[in-house]
Amino acid sequence: MQAWQVHENGEPSEVMRLQEVERPTPGDGQVLLKVRAANVNFPDVLMCRGQYQVRPPLPFTPGVEICGETEDGRRVIANPVLPYGGFAEYAVADAAALLPAPDALDDAETAALHIGYQTGWFGLHRRAALQAGETLLVHAAAGGVGSAAVQLGKAAGATVIGVVGGAGKAAVARELGCDVVVDRHAEDVVGAVKAATGGRGADVIYDPVGGEAYTQSAKTVAFEGRIVVVGFASGTIPSPALNHALVKNYSILGLHWGLYATKNPKLILDCHQRLTELAADGAIKPLVSERVPLADAAAAVQRLGDGVTTGRVTVLPNGAGA
Question: What are phi and psi of 266, to 5 degrees?
Answer without folding.
Answer: -60, -35
